[in-house]
Structures are given as structure tokens and as C-alpha cells.
Amino acid sequence: MYSVTVRGHMMIAHSFRGEVFGPARRLHGATYVVDVEFRRADLDADGIVVDIGRATTSVHAILEALNYRNLDDEATFTDRNTTEFLARHVFDRLVAAIRSGELGDNGRAIEGIKVTLHESHIASGAYDGRVIDAIAPA
Amino acid sequence: MYSVTVRGHMMIAHSFRGEVFGPARRLHGATYVVDVEFRRADLDADGIVVDIGRATTSVHAILEALNYRNLDDEATFTDRNTTEFLARHVFDRLVAAIRSGELGDNGRAIEGIKVTLHESHIASGAYDGRVIDAIAPA
Amino acid sequence: MYSVTVRGHMMIAHSFRGEVFGPARRLHGATYVVDVEFRRADLDADGIVVDIGRATTSVHAILEALNYRNLDDEATFTDRNTTEFLARHVFDRLVAAIRSGELGDNGRAIEGIKVTLHESHIASGAYDGRVIDAIAPA
Amino acid sequence: MYSVTVRGHMMIAHSFRGEVFGPARRLHGATYVVDVEFRRADLDADGIVVDIGRATTSVHAILEALNYRNLDDEATFTDRNTTEFLARHVFDRLVAAIRSGELGDNGRAIEGIKVTLHESHIASGAYDGRVIDAIAPA
Amino acid sequence: MYSVTVRGHMMIAHSFRGEVFGPARRLHGATYVVDVEFRRADLDADGIVVDIGRATTSVHAILEALNYRNLDDEATFTDRNTTEFLARHVFDRLVAAIRSGELGDNGRAIEGIKVTLHESHIASGAYDGRVIDAIAPA
Amino acid sequence: MYSVTVRGHMMIAHSFRGEVFGPARRLHGATYVVDVEFRRADLDADGIVVDIGRATTSVHAILEALNYRNLDDEATFTDRNTTEFLARHVFDRLVAAIRSGELGDNGRAIEGIKVTLHESHIASGAYDGRVIDAIAPA
Fold first, then answer.
1. Of the candidates C94, C31, C34, C33, the residue with the CA atom closest to the CA atom of residue C58
2. Residue A33 forms beta bridges with which residues?
3. Which of F94, F95, F96, F66 lies closest to F81 in space, CA to CA?
4. Each residue of D16-40: pLDDT tens digit?
5. What is the mean pLDDT of chain F?
6. Which chains are within 8 Å of F by 3+ CB pairs?
């Protein structure tokens, strides 16, 4: 399996609901340094997994839509904006980008994507899925 | 597959037995920076893989039991304390913690764990296993 | 010059005021990974710059007072909570901790402190000052 | 699954052919920081995945053959030297090393290898394969 | 002293002249991950060292002029393109940018700049200077 | 001021004496990832701070003499082997190497050296001194 990984980041505010979150129920924030790994079994005719320029543009566009925002005010994330959920959100948006051709015709051959959100030097969350299994994101 | 990763560390002395270890047969030591990845297919009702507070507490407790020690003096590790073996030890302890409920009721849904021990900027060892396959640790 | 550096972190929400800040004027957040370097010309009788346990406790206490908070709601930071300002705040708190004896009698010999706040993998801010020059923090 | 990872690096010049590469069609260069992960289900009698000394020697020898070179001048890489292709090249060379006994008799039990080439702080490419599936490298 | 540091990178080919460089006399390449630290004694009215947006734009523009190039073909660097020399080049360009007002009126108050070029995980070169002492770059 | 930094590491066992060290009074160990920064005001005729090959060889030789050892058994370090003290030891050895000509004739122009020992992802110790001020090491 071949893979290519690109990095971006976003800086957001949010709060969590539920006893399990303790002090994180207060409005706080995070820098998420985001690694996106694109995987496929074989390389395309150019010898690459994906046009890294297009892939980077897509990843940055998805993060930019959330950057410098309070996720508590965004309908998509109200009551559900854990690191894990945000990783899945980025995955779903990338699947949609692949299906729309945003990553190029060869980008449609991407089989798997892992999205990792590093929230500090000691903690991260991730979602790793197959593109073909993904249900159409809302 | 969703995952959450937390980091801890320990500083231990040890020595190895066997020609293959060369100068590492002398008593020496290591800082192990330890990354533990918890995985499961679906999130719980709170939208998380595991209560990260409990997970961190469990990881730190396991490392603390070894921290600032000479593993050559610990019965569990005599003659077998390679990085790989230590990674498996942490995995086994975490499986036991999950089964005892230490990671919460929802923690029992964790399917896989990867334990990586970074011993320097250029070398690491790891054990990655499924919780359900794990035999009861001694 | 000898030095010892310890690391901690905090996750906060905030917003900035002023045209120069562009989209960062919106309520957003950051994880600050914080490195604190303590410096002095000579070591104490134990061969150390400072009791690293006490130093870590002080750094963590200062960060904990800000952690999981919206700095826009904290009187100390209203209208002035840039990364640079926060670095100075941590410096001032540490100077106060040294003067109060919180870092031990030998801690009073610390001559300089550098506080670096990493806000992402590509940006950081810092304050570096001499303890003796510091005015009494408010 | 157990694993051990070792790191090396190489500094090469190259250029790419194809519209998709944009400005990277010009002769330029890269430092590749290379992580090689060796995997197997069980440890050998010494409690290790592989003799890390031999593994490091093999990885460094493979990288040294490319280090400080212009890959456009190397027959193996003419017209095909993307990061992904280079990762596969290192994988193939390591499979050959295992089969020749260069990693020791126990090294023959290695089941999988992942080769990751970090080309900057924000991009990497990798090849991950099973040793048994690998066709004999040219 | 306050400081702000931003990161960029460039991927270049080059070769060195002189016995001391050994195999690096062959045409090869490097990824330089570049950290630029801007320093000044006091913050401006906005509570910042420099407009980080403008500073990042300037750093990226300087690196972009070298990115994806063979420095042996650039008149500025013929026979003198060591890591140390490149660090000084970036410093000189930044001094010129400050003097031209590219970093804003407040940017003129920057007193010192350190430019660090990381060429691998184990080596870097840097130039650290005072802006006021810098001679007008050619 | 120009600088070049090279990295090495060592894995040692040791214990500390004194109430302040708490559990670190037990025999334990550490991986020290060691960064050595060489500084000088002007470059030599080859455009470099120091022959990086010679500098790396010297740093590695100094670390190798301690690697895979129990420092409690080494006369030099009995009762005094804190991270800070070890950083000074490496500095002193490098000053001796410079004076003996081990870093080349041009190496004698090195003015300052900073030795940083990273003992984990959250702690380090360092010694930074001027070569000319250094007393002859024992």
C-alpha cells in the first residue's frame, strides 16, 4: 500500500457536554495540527498516490472553513465536536471532495484516508476509513 | 476506525543478555517516551473512543510502576526486557485495566491498542494487538 | 550559563481586538505548548539549576489557572491576550513564585527565564527576561 | 504484531516529469528523513523483532547508495523518482537484504515493512507491504 | 526580550566546492525547514512583536524565490551556498524587507532576527544578528 | 553570529544523591538526545562555522565513551551526574577537542558552544559557554 501524508492546522474554540469531560465543559479552545494520509494499492501513471497540490488545497479548504471559529456556534458541531468527531468530519469532507473530482480523476482511486488531529504534544484523535465504505456525508 | 492516542514516559535502567545485543549487555538505561493508541469502530454516546482522563491515568500508573527503576531487579523482566517486550507488557496491563473496568464501562468497547516506546530520536519498538485476542496477562 | 527546560500546555479560547488580527478577531482558541527555560551561571550544591519537581509544579499551576478557559472573560487578559503577552504573564508569575520561595531557597538564584508558547507546528511567541530586572507583577 | 522502527536520511537532487508536478519539474532537491518499520507476529528467542544493529546497517547502506546524488543521473530512477517510488525502492532493497540473510537468520521471519520518507515538516510518502508478497526486485 | 517565530521551507539542489565538503561536492539537494525568530524589547500598541501575517508573507516570498531551484545556477549563490550562507541570505532579505516597510511601520522596531535552517533531523545552521548592525544587502 | 548544530545520543544508567532528587535516587536510566551548537561571528574561507564531519565525529566520540554505561561506576561522575553536569562535561570535552586541533585549524575559531541534553519530550538541561573563558578541563 502506498500513501502520502500532508499537514495543516486550525485554531478553534469549543466546549463539551457530558460529565465525562470535566473542566473541558467550559468554553476553551485548541490548535489542531492535522495530518491526512491518503492510501492506495498502486500508483497512477505519474508515479504518485494523488496530486499533492490538489490534496493540500482540499485539506486546507476544509480546515479554513472551521479556522478561527467557535464550533459551539456552528450547526454541524453543536453538542458533538470531540476530536474524534472532528477527525471524522474532515474524512467525510475529503470523501466528498474525491467524489466531486476535486482531487483529480486519479484522485478517485484513493482507497483509504486517515485523519489525525494532534491537540497537544501528548494527545491526538483520529479517524481511519475506506473511501468506498463511506456513506455520503450530509 | 476511530482512535485516541496519549503520551507518557519512564526512565529505567536495564541490561540485555545475548550476543546479539553487543554493548547493550552492559547495565545502561533509557528514557521511553510511550504513545498508547486506543481504537474502536464506533464512538460511544459521548462521541469519544474512551474517557481520555481515565486512559491517561491508567497509562501513567502502568509506567509509574516501572519509572526510576532498574528492570534487572524486577522479577517480571529478568532476562526479558527488550523494548518490544516492554511494549507488550504495557499492552497486557492495559487489557487487564479494561477488563477490570478501570477505563469505564465504555472503555470495554476498545477493540485494539498500539503501544509504541520511543527510545531515542532514531529508534522505537511497538506492540499492536486486538483486545479480544489477548490472553489473560499473568 | 546552565539551564533547565520543562514543558507544559494549556487549551484556551480568546479573541483579539485590532485590524491587524484579521480573522483572529473572531472568538477562536489555541493549544499552547509551553517551554520554560530557567537559567543561572552556576549550579547549586546538588549540581542542579533548580529543583525540577518544584519548577514543574509551579509551571503547571500557572498554566492550570488558565487552562480550559475563555481568556476574554478573565480580567487580566481583556483586550490584551496575544501569545507574546501570555508569555510575559507566565514569566511574571514565575518571578513571583521565585520571590515567594516556591521554587526553594536555591531557586532564588535563578537569573533568567525564557517562556516560549508554541501555538502550532509553524508559529510560537516568547518572552525572555532577567529575574532581577523584573518589576513586581501586579 | 510487534514492530521496530529505525531512522536514517539522505540528501538528493532530482526533477519530475509531468504537468502535475508544476515547479517541481525544475531540478531541485530534498532531504528525506526515512523511517523503516519492521513487523512480525512473534518475537525471536532473544525477544526482539530483528537485530537492530543489522537492520540499521542495511537501511543506512541503502540510503548511502543514493545520498549526495542527483537521481536524474541514476538509471534506476530516470523518469520515476517520486517520493512514493523511492519508498518502494527502499522496501524492495530491504526485502532483498532479508532474503540474502543480511538481517540474520531471524530476520527472515520479518513479515511486513513500512518505509516512510518525510520530505518536510508538512509532507511525507510511504510504502507498506508484506515481505512474502514482494516480487523479486530487479 | 519578546520574540515571535514562524516556519517555512524550501527544497533546493546544490553542490559545494572545497575538500572539506567530501561527497557533498557532488550535485545533491536538501529540504530546508526554516525557522525565523523576530525579536524586540517591547511590544507595539497591539501587543505584538510584528504582524505575523506580514512576517509570514515575507519569509515565504524569500524562500519561494529559491524553492525548486538548483542554487548552482543562481548567480547569488555560485560557489557560496552553505547552510550558514543561506541563513545569512534570508536574514539580509528580511532586513531589506523591514527597511522597505514590508513588515509594516511597527515592523521597523524589530531589533534582532535569528534564521535557522534545519537540513535534517540531526543538523541545522543559523545566522543570528541585530537589524541595526546589518549592512545594506546587495 | 553564525551557528551549526549537530545531534547525537547516549543511553546511560545512573542514580542521584540528595533529598531533592526523590525517586531519582534509585538506580534508573535515561536516553539523552544531545544537541551541540557551535557559534562564531564570521565564517571561514569555505563559508562554514566548522567542518561538520569533524564536529559530528567529535561529538559522537564523547558520547560513545559514556554510552551503554552505568555512570555511577565512572569515577568522573560519581556523586555528580545531573543532566546539567553532563552537559558541562560534553562542553569541556569539546573545548579540549578544539584546543587539540581535532576540529581542524578553522575549528579553533569557534567562540561559543551550547550543549543541550533532552532527557524526555518534556525536560532538558543545557550548558552554554564561551570557549575562551573555559578553564582547562581536568
1. C94
2. A9, A118
3. F66
4. 999 999 999 999 999 999 999 999 9
5. 95
6. A, B, C, E
Cβ within 8 Å, pair E123-F4 = yes
Q: Is the predicted ipTM greater than 0.90, yes or no?
A: yes
Instruction: Judge: E28–D120 Cβ closer than 8 Å, yes or no.
Output: no
Amino acid at position B89, single letter = H
pLDDT of residue E79: 76
Average pLDDT, chain C: 95
Judged by CB atoms closer than 8 Å, whether chains meet at A22 and B53 is answered as: yes
H or E segment to which residue A14 belongs = strand A2-14
Contact A126 B5 (CB under 8 A): yes
Where residue E66 falls (left for φ over 0; alpha for ψ -120 to 50; beta otherwise) is alpha
**Cβ contact (<8 Å) for C123 and E5?**
yes
Strand partners of residue E128:
E114
DSSP letters for E13-70: EE---SGGGGGGGSSEEEEEEEEEEEEESS--TTS-SS-HHHHHHHHHHHHHTTTT-B
Kindly report the length of chain F.
138
- CB count in 10 Å sphere of residue D56: 18
Any CB–CB contact under 8 A between E121 and chain B? yes
Nearest partner of D39 among E121, E12, B128, B122, judged by Cα: B128
For F20-32, b/e burial (b = at least 16 CB within 10 A) is bbeebeebbbbbb
Q: What interhelical angle do F52-64 and F83-99 show, nearest 10?
A: 130
Q: How far apart are alpha carbons B62 and B83 in whole angstroms?
A: 15
Which residues in chain F (4-43) have CB-CB distances under 8 A to chain E?
Answer: 4-8, 43
Distance of residue D29 Cα from the nearest chain A Cα, in angstroms: 17
Structure confidence at residue E78 as a pLDDT band (50, 70, 90): confident
Chain F CB contacts of A121 under 8 Å are 121-122
Residue numbers in F near A122 (CB within 8 A): 121
Interface contacts C/E by beta carbons within 8 Å: 51
Nearest to C47 among F85, F124, F128 (CB): F85
Query: Which residue among D3, D7, D51 sits closest to B20, beta carbon to beta carbon?
Result: D51
Chain F residues lying within 8 Å of B123, measured CB to CB: none
Choose from D15, D32, D71, D82 for mutation: most chain A CBs within 10 A. D82
Q: For residue A4, which residues of chain D lie inside 8 Å, CB to CB?
A: 83-84, 123-126
* Count of helices and strands (H, E) across chain E: 2, 4
Contact B127 D1 (CB under 8 A): yes
Give the CA angle between residues A18, A20, A22 to the nearest 5°. 90
Calculate helix-pair angle for A83-99, A52-64, nearest 10 degrees: 130
Partner D contacted by C121 (CB < 8 A) = yes
First to last CA, chain D: 29
| Angle at A124 (CA atoms; ends A103, E48), nearest 5 degrees | 85
CB E39 within 8 A of CB E1: yes
Q: What is the end-to-end Cα distance of chain B in Å, rounded?
A: 29
Q: Which cell numbers in the block locate residue C128?
A: 525572555
D92 vs B: CB within 8 A:
no
d(CA D28, CA E11): 6
CB contact under 8 A, A84 and B47: yes
Q: How far is CA F55 from CA D127, F102, F135, in A?
A: 34, 8, 21
Q: Which of helix, strand or coil describes residue F126? A: strand
Q: At what angle do helices D83-99 and D52-64 cross, to 10 degrees?
A: 130
Q: Which residue has the cell 524587507?
A: E97
What pLDDT is recorded for position F137?
A: 54
CB contact under 8 A, B21 and D46: yes
Contact criterion met (CB < 8 Å) for E5 and C82: no
Alpha-carbon gap, residue B30 to A43, rounded angstroms: 40
Total-model pTM: 0.97
The predicted-structure confidence for E85-133, as pLDDT tens digits, reads as follows: 999 999 999 999 999 999 999 999 999 999 999 999 999 999 999 998 8
